[in-house]
Design a protein that fits this description.
- The chain is an alpha/beta fold.
- The protein is 32% helix and 23% strand.
- The chain is built from eight helices and ten strands.
- The strands form two sheets. It has an eight-stranded mixed beta sheet with strand order 5-1-2-6-7-8-9-10. It has a two-stranded antiparallel ribbon with strand order 3-4.
- Strand 6, helix 3 and strand 7 form a beta-alpha-beta unit.
- Helix 1 packs across helix 3.
- The structure holds iron/sulfur cluster.
- The site of iron/sulfur cluster has 13 residues, from loops.
- Iron/sulfur cluster (SF4) binds next to loops.
Protein backbone atom coordinates (compact mmCIF):
# COMPACT_ATOMS: atom_id res chain seq x y z
CA UNK A 1 0.00 0.00 0.00
CA UNK A 2 1.38 3.39 -0.98
CA UNK A 3 1.14 6.23 1.54
CA UNK A 4 -0.80 9.30 0.41
CA UNK A 5 1.57 12.21 -0.13
CA UNK A 6 4.78 10.27 -0.78
CA UNK A 7 5.58 12.65 -3.65
CA UNK A 8 5.23 15.66 -1.33
CA UNK A 9 8.61 17.30 -0.99
CA UNK A 10 10.22 19.46 1.66
CA UNK A 11 13.61 20.92 2.56
CA UNK A 12 15.80 18.69 4.72
CA UNK A 13 19.18 19.73 6.07
CA UNK A 14 20.26 16.46 7.68
CA UNK A 15 19.22 12.90 8.40
CA UNK A 16 21.01 11.16 11.27
CA UNK A 17 20.78 7.38 11.53
CA UNK A 18 21.31 5.43 14.76
CA UNK A 19 20.63 8.55 16.85
CA UNK A 20 20.66 7.79 20.57
CA UNK A 21 19.41 11.04 22.12
CA UNK A 22 16.33 11.94 20.11
CA UNK A 23 13.81 9.66 21.80
CA UNK A 24 13.63 6.05 22.98
CA UNK A 25 15.86 3.39 21.41
CA UNK A 26 17.77 3.76 18.18
CA UNK A 27 16.26 6.38 15.93
CA UNK A 28 16.53 8.05 12.59
CA UNK A 29 16.27 11.81 13.06
CA UNK A 30 15.10 13.88 10.12
CA UNK A 31 15.92 17.60 10.32
CA UNK A 32 13.51 19.95 8.54
CA UNK A 33 14.46 23.52 7.70
CA UNK A 34 12.50 26.49 8.99
CA UNK A 35 12.12 27.92 12.49
CA UNK A 36 10.08 30.85 13.86
CA UNK A 37 12.55 31.39 16.74
CA UNK A 38 15.98 32.97 16.74
CA UNK A 39 17.54 31.59 19.91
CA UNK A 40 20.78 33.37 20.73
CA UNK A 41 22.48 30.03 21.48
CA UNK A 42 21.03 28.15 18.45
CA UNK A 43 22.93 24.93 17.81
CA UNK A 44 21.34 24.49 14.36
CA UNK A 45 21.41 27.97 12.79
CA UNK A 46 21.28 26.38 9.34
CA UNK A 47 17.74 25.32 10.22
CA UNK A 48 16.35 28.82 10.72
CA UNK A 49 15.65 29.73 7.10
CA UNK A 50 13.21 27.41 5.37
CA UNK A 51 15.14 27.71 2.09
CA UNK A 52 18.29 25.87 1.04
CA UNK A 53 21.40 28.00 1.67
CA UNK A 54 25.03 28.06 0.63
CA UNK A 55 27.60 29.08 3.22
CA UNK A 56 30.64 31.28 2.59
CA UNK A 57 32.67 28.06 2.56
CA UNK A 58 30.56 26.73 -0.29
CA UNK A 59 28.87 24.19 1.97
CA UNK A 60 25.26 23.54 1.06
CA UNK A 61 22.70 23.65 3.89
CA UNK A 62 19.47 21.93 2.92
CA UNK A 63 18.07 20.28 -0.19
CA UNK A 64 14.64 19.12 -1.32
CA UNK A 65 13.60 15.53 -0.65
CA UNK A 66 10.32 13.75 -1.18
CA UNK A 67 8.53 11.79 1.53
CA UNK A 68 9.34 8.60 -0.38
CA UNK A 69 13.07 9.47 -0.44
CA UNK A 70 13.14 10.21 3.30
CA UNK A 71 11.19 7.04 4.07
CA UNK A 72 13.67 4.93 2.11
CA UNK A 73 16.37 6.07 4.55
CA UNK A 74 14.08 5.64 7.57
CA UNK A 75 12.95 2.14 6.59
CA UNK A 76 16.53 0.92 6.07
CA UNK A 77 16.85 0.72 9.88
CA UNK A 78 13.46 -0.80 10.64
CA UNK A 79 15.00 -3.88 12.33
CA UNK A 80 16.90 -1.62 14.77
CA UNK A 81 13.70 0.19 15.76
CA UNK A 82 12.03 -3.13 16.48
CA UNK A 83 14.89 -4.46 18.60
CA UNK A 84 15.56 -1.21 20.50
CA UNK A 85 12.11 0.35 20.84
CA UNK A 86 13.19 3.19 18.55
CA UNK A 87 11.64 4.91 15.56
CA UNK A 88 11.76 8.12 13.59
CA UNK A 89 12.09 11.63 15.06
CA UNK A 90 11.22 14.79 13.14
CA UNK A 91 13.34 17.70 14.29
CA UNK A 92 14.65 20.98 12.95
CA UNK A 93 14.29 23.85 13.11
CA UNK A 94 10.64 23.59 13.91
CA UNK A 95 9.15 20.75 11.85
CA UNK A 96 5.65 22.26 11.77
CA UNK A 97 6.92 25.20 9.68
CA UNK A 98 6.80 22.82 6.70
CA UNK A 99 3.45 21.57 7.90
CA UNK A 100 2.20 19.59 4.88
CA UNK A 101 5.54 17.84 4.48
CA UNK A 102 5.81 17.14 8.21
CA UNK A 103 2.31 15.67 8.26
CA UNK A 104 2.94 13.55 5.17
CA UNK A 105 6.14 12.15 6.75
CA UNK A 106 4.29 11.28 9.95
CA UNK A 107 1.50 9.64 7.95
CA UNK A 108 4.03 7.58 5.99
CA UNK A 109 5.72 6.48 9.22
CA UNK A 110 2.35 5.57 10.71
CA UNK A 111 1.45 3.52 7.65
CA UNK A 112 4.79 1.71 7.94
CA UNK A 113 4.18 1.16 11.69
CA UNK A 114 7.31 3.11 12.66
CA UNK A 115 6.99 4.86 16.07
CA UNK A 116 7.15 8.65 15.77
CA UNK A 117 8.54 11.49 17.85
CA UNK A 118 8.14 15.20 17.10
CA UNK A 119 10.68 17.72 18.40
CA UNK A 120 8.89 21.04 18.69
CA UNK A 121 9.74 24.47 20.04
CA UNK A 122 6.00 24.79 20.71
CA UNK A 123 5.63 28.05 18.80
CA UNK A 124 3.14 27.16 16.07
CA UNK A 125 -0.58 27.51 15.43
CA UNK A 126 -2.37 25.23 17.92
CA UNK A 127 -4.53 23.67 15.21
CA UNK A 128 -1.37 22.27 13.62
CA UNK A 129 -0.45 20.42 16.80
CA UNK A 130 -3.99 19.07 17.12
CA UNK A 131 -3.93 17.83 13.53
CA UNK A 132 -0.61 16.06 14.10
CA UNK A 133 -1.56 14.66 17.51
CA UNK A 134 -2.94 11.30 16.23
CA UNK A 135 0.26 10.76 14.22
CA UNK A 136 2.77 11.47 17.03
CA UNK A 137 3.64 8.89 19.69
CA UNK A 138 5.89 11.20 21.69
CA UNK A 139 6.45 14.96 21.79
CA UNK A 140 9.80 16.45 22.69
CA UNK A 141 8.59 19.88 23.76
CA UNK A 142 11.13 22.65 24.41
CA UNK A 143 10.88 24.76 27.54
CA UNK A 144 13.57 27.39 27.18
CA UNK A 145 12.62 30.31 29.44
CA UNK A 146 9.85 30.78 31.96
CA UNK A 147 9.03 34.48 31.57
CA UNK A 148 7.65 36.06 28.41
CA UNK A 149 9.90 39.17 28.33
CA UNK A 150 12.98 36.97 28.77
CA UNK A 151 11.66 34.61 26.14
CA UNK A 152 11.34 37.46 23.65
CA UNK A 153 14.75 38.85 24.52
CA UNK A 154 16.60 35.58 23.92
CA UNK A 155 14.49 33.81 21.25
CA UNK A 156 12.72 36.61 19.39
CA UNK A 157 9.21 35.50 20.40
CA UNK A 158 7.36 35.66 23.69
CA UNK A 159 6.46 32.43 25.45
CA UNK A 160 2.67 32.77 25.72
CA UNK A 161 1.75 30.68 22.72
CA UNK A 162 4.28 28.02 23.75
CA UNK A 163 2.72 27.78 27.20
CA UNK A 164 -0.78 27.60 25.69
CA UNK A 165 0.30 24.85 23.29
CA UNK A 166 1.90 22.85 26.07
CA UNK A 167 -1.32 23.11 28.08
CA UNK A 168 -3.27 22.05 24.99
CA UNK A 169 -1.16 18.93 24.43
CA UNK A 170 -1.42 17.99 28.11
CA UNK A 171 -5.18 18.49 27.99
CA UNK A 172 -5.38 16.11 25.00
CA UNK A 173 -3.34 13.44 26.74
CA UNK A 174 -0.23 13.67 24.55
CA UNK A 175 2.88 11.85 25.72
CA UNK A 176 5.36 14.66 26.45
CA UNK A 177 9.00 14.88 27.42
CA UNK A 178 9.93 18.46 28.31
CA UNK A 179 13.39 19.44 27.07
CA UNK A 180 15.10 22.33 28.79
CA UNK A 181 18.38 23.73 27.43
CA UNK A 182 20.38 25.35 30.21
CA UNK A 183 22.38 28.35 29.04
CA UNK A 184 24.77 30.14 31.38
CA UNK A 185 23.69 33.74 31.95
CA UNK A 186 20.37 33.20 30.15
CA UNK A 187 18.25 30.73 32.10
CA UNK A 188 20.47 29.12 34.74
CA UNK A 189 18.68 31.01 37.50
CA UNK A 190 16.83 29.55 40.51
CA UNK A 191 13.40 30.81 39.44
CA UNK A 192 13.56 29.06 36.04
CA UNK A 193 14.92 25.95 37.74
CA UNK A 194 11.96 26.00 40.15
CA UNK A 195 9.54 26.15 37.21
CA UNK A 196 11.27 23.17 35.59
CA UNK A 197 11.00 21.27 38.89
CA UNK A 198 7.27 21.99 38.96
CA UNK A 199 6.88 20.65 35.43
CA UNK A 200 8.82 17.54 36.43
CA UNK A 201 6.14 16.68 38.98
CA UNK A 202 3.23 17.56 36.67
CA UNK A 203 1.14 14.43 35.93
CA UNK A 204 0.87 15.42 32.26
CA UNK A 205 4.64 15.46 31.73
CA UNK A 206 6.35 12.10 31.38
CA UNK A 207 9.81 13.41 32.18
CA UNK A 208 12.05 16.45 32.02
CA UNK A 209 15.46 16.55 30.38
CA UNK A 210 17.92 19.32 31.24
CA UNK A 211 20.22 19.78 28.27
CA UNK A 212 23.71 21.34 28.47
CA UNK A 213 24.73 24.13 26.11
CA UNK A 214 27.09 23.19 23.33
CA UNK A 215 28.70 25.55 20.89
CA UNK A 216 28.37 23.44 17.75
CA UNK A 217 26.28 26.15 16.09
CA UNK A 218 28.96 28.85 16.13
CA UNK A 219 30.96 27.72 13.10
CA UNK A 220 27.81 27.13 11.07
CA UNK A 221 26.42 30.57 12.01
CA UNK A 222 29.67 32.20 10.96
CA UNK A 223 29.63 30.31 7.67
CA UNK A 224 26.11 31.61 7.02
CA UNK A 225 26.92 35.17 8.08
CA UNK A 226 24.55 35.00 11.06
CA UNK A 227 25.02 36.64 14.43
CA UNK A 228 26.18 34.07 16.97
CA UNK A 229 26.85 34.40 20.68
CA UNK A 230 29.16 32.21 22.75
CA UNK A 231 27.82 31.34 26.21
S1 LIG B 1 14.11 26.66 18.38
FE1 LIG B 1 15.95 25.40 18.02
S2 LIG B 1 16.37 25.59 15.82
FE2 LIG B 1 14.95 27.24 16.36
S3 LIG B 1 16.30 29.00 16.76
FE3 LIG B 1 15.90 27.97 18.73
S4 LIG B 1 17.60 26.53 19.01
FE4 LIG B 1 17.58 27.17 16.84
Amino acid sequence: MKAAGTTQSGIIFDIQRAALHDGPGLRTTVFLKGCPLRCSWCHNPESQSVSPQTGRSGKQYGAPMTVAEVMRVVLADRSFYTSSGGGVTLSGGEPTVQFDFCKALLQAARLAKIPTCLDTCGHCPPERLLELLPLVDLFHFDWKLSGSPEHRKWTGVDGDRIRENLDLLIEHGARIILRCPLIHGVNDDPSHSAVIDRWASHPGIESVERLPYHCSGLAKAEDLGLRALQF
